[in-house]
Amino acid sequence: MDRDAVNIWDFQQAVAYMETDPARAKDLFKEYIESHPKDYVAYSYYASVHVILGDFDKAEEILNYAENLVSDDQEFREYKSRSDYFYKMITFARLKVL
Asked: Which of 81, 46, 80 is nearest to 66 (CA)?
């Protein structure tokens, strides 16, 4: 299996763990983001795990960081369907923080 396939598997595993083992999901998302820092949607999942764990300040910090990354990435913002999906996921994650 190639590296990207393994990382996608890790991401899917992290999503699966969100309900059953959010602490493990948090660790997996952190590892995934470290190896894929431009997968901006992953930040919304990472923030959501922090919400599940009750760490709302950290969730807000992650969401702000992700939005700053995207604001600096002109190429990503020009890819309309991806950027729209990112903002949708970030908005959904922010609603969980409220």
From this structure: 46
Q: What is the C-alpha to C-alpha distance for residues 43 and 49, in angstroms, rounded to an integer?
A: 10
Q: Which DSSP symbol is given to 54?
A: T
pTM to 2 decimals?
Answer: 0.85
CA distances to 34, 51, 96 from 31, in Å: 5, 18, 23
Distance CA 5, CA 34 (A): 16
What average pLDDT score do residues 19-43 get? 92
Q: Is 38:76 a contact under the CB 8 Å cutoff?
A: yes
Distance CA 78, CA 52 (A): 32
